[in-house]
Structure formats: C-alpha cells, structure tokens
Write a structure and sequence with these properties.
alpha+beta; Rossmann fold; 2 domains; 8-stranded mixed sheet; 5-stranded mixed sheet; globular
Length: 308
C-alpha cells in the first residue's frame, strides 16, 4: 500500500487520477478504476474516502472502466457502462446507480478470479481476532445483522465474501460497502442513526438498494487476519424470539459447501479446508427478529467459546 488514502487527494488530483486510472486497495485485492467522467470522481470521493491507494505499479485484481454510452442508450436513461479488462461492456445503468454497479462489477471479478482463496458466501465479523462466519442465502438477514454489529463493537471482515487462504484457516478481511435492500435500509437507519449511507437506488434487480459505508477503523484493520470460532446460519423472521439451535458437524460441512463459490473448481483443496474449518468451529442456526437481541446472543456465545 502507498499509505495514502483517497481522501488525501485534492478533488482536482482525484479527477486526474481517475482519468489515468486509480488503484485502490480493498483487503487483499487491488481494484483499478478508470474514467474521465467527473461522476466517477464524485462517487469515489463520497463513498470510498478511507480506502488506501495501492502502491504504484501494483497488479490489479480487477480493472473497471467507466465509459459513456451511445445516444440511443442515453435516450433510454442508461448513459454509462462499465467495461472489464477485456474492454467489453459488463453492465449499463442510470447515473444514480453508479455506486451499485461499481460494487457489483468488483464482486463479479473477485468471485470469478480469486481462486487462491476458498470463497464462502458468508458475512464475517470479529472481536479481538475471533471471527463469526454467517453464511446464508440472499434474504437471510446477514447483511442487515452485519451492518448493526459493526456499530456495536464488532469488526467487519466482509458482508459477502469470507476468504480462507490456507490450512491455518486464517480469514482475510475484505471490508466493503454493505448493500442493504428495501426494508432493511430503514431498519438500520432507525437502529443506527449515525450509519453513513449512499443514495437509495430504486429499480435494481434487487429492488431498492442503499450502501452503508464502514468506518475508518474497519478499513485500517483490513490486513489483520482473524481466526474462525463460530459458524452461525442466521434467519430473520418477523416477530420471532432469538433462538439458537446447535448444528451437527456433518450438516455444517454440507451447508458450507453449498455456500462456497468455488467448491467445485478447487475440489480436494476446498473439501479439505472446509472440513478443517468445520472441525475448528462450533455451529448454530440463529432465528431472530430484534437486532439488539441477536447481538447480545452472539456476544455471549462467542465469549463462551473463547473461554473453553
């Protein structure tokens, strides 16, 4: 890393860097973004100010280029497109949806290329280096719960990608903006008034989306690994009490394989690492409706596991 964060660039310098190509460090990955359009610099300035610039000449794990569309697409209110490193358009969108499409494009690059990791579709949070993994299908409530926890003393590892690199089972942090959908936006804004959100973006394939920006402390700690201690499969259910149900090891392993982006591709490596992960953690299913109760339950559970 260069040691310089994006917020330390003047607005003019940021615009010039975007036009030439700007490289940001996000956890173990370098994202290179290019585009002379001032809306790109405005977006990065507003929502990525605490991310460090990558060292000069760093290899880019993902390369995104913002380009204008032809007049017919502008007429259709899709005036911008994002192209990947092959130069082909990956997505086009209205101007107000730039932030969401940057995030989705970066996610796609990581999910399809970062096979040096076993990648789990799971949120990850930690306290004092001890991590809780929360795998789940979309709608399970893991992003909403993560957004709440990081404002209650937990460290954000990732809202979507849990990265396991080696047999030591260290989890590599990948803190990003947390995308909240539909009713979850109001839930977090009411529960955490100080939370910093991007714009509400209606009409996406996921409904209305708004991105929560993690605080500086989560970005500054992004190169500190964490040790997995718990796997908790959350399920939000309106009106329910917070309940925990122990998950047998075989069932935990099966569910982890179902939530692994690259399990089939990595084969034996993923099998062995997820088996080791299963043997290293305690696993539970948690049903909840109240965020404060869920946080208290997780804190108590983690403290008990650490004391063993």
């Amino acid at each position: 890393m260069s040691g310089t964060t994006l917020r330390q660039l003047s607005r003019a310098a940021l615009g010039a860097r975007c036009a030439a190509g700007l490289s940001l460090q996000a956890g173990p990955f370098v994202l290179r973004i290019q585009g002379a359009d001032p809306v790109l610099a405005d977006c990065l300035h507003a929502y990525y100010p605490n991310y460090p610039l990558a060292a000069e000449g760093s290899f880019a794990d993902a390369q995104l280029t913002l380009k204008p569309q032809a007049w017919v697409d502008r007429w259709r209110d899709r005036p911008r497109q994002i192209c990947l490193e092959d130069g082909l358009a990956f997505t086009d969108f209205p101007l107000e949806a730039l932030l969401a499409n940057l995030e989705w494009s970066f996610n796609w690059c990581v999910a399809t290329h970062a096979n040096q990791y076993v990648m789990l579709h799971a949120a990850g949070v930690a306290k004092q280096g001890h991590a809780v993994l929360m795998p789940g299908v979309p709608g399970a409530g893991k992003s909403t719960l993560s957004a709440y926890l990081i404002h209650r003393g937990w460290r954000l590892l990732s809202d979507e990608f849990t990265l396991v690199r080696n047999q030591a089972l260290d989890l590599h942090a990948f803190p990003r903006l947390i995308p909240l959908k539909n009713d979850a936006i109001d839930v977090i804004q009411n529960a955490v008034p100080q939370a910093q959100f991007g714009p509400r973006i209606p009409g996406t394939r996921k409904g209305t989306v708004a991105h929560l920006r993690p605080g500086d402390e989560h970005i500054q700690a992004m190169h500190e690994p964490a040790r997995p201690r718990l796997v908790v499969f959350p399920t939000y259910e309106r009106g329910s009490a917070t309940t925990l149900t122990a998950v047998p090891a075989a069932e935990c392993f099966t569910d982890l394989t179902h939530n692994c982006f690259n399990y089939a591709l990595l084969g034996r490596q993923a099998f062995q690492m997820l088996g080791a992960l299963t043997n290293h953690v305690e696993a539970f299913r948690m049903r909840y409706s109240e965020l404060a109760s869920a946080e208290d339950t997780l804190s108590t559970l983690l403290a008990r596991v650490i004391e063993k």
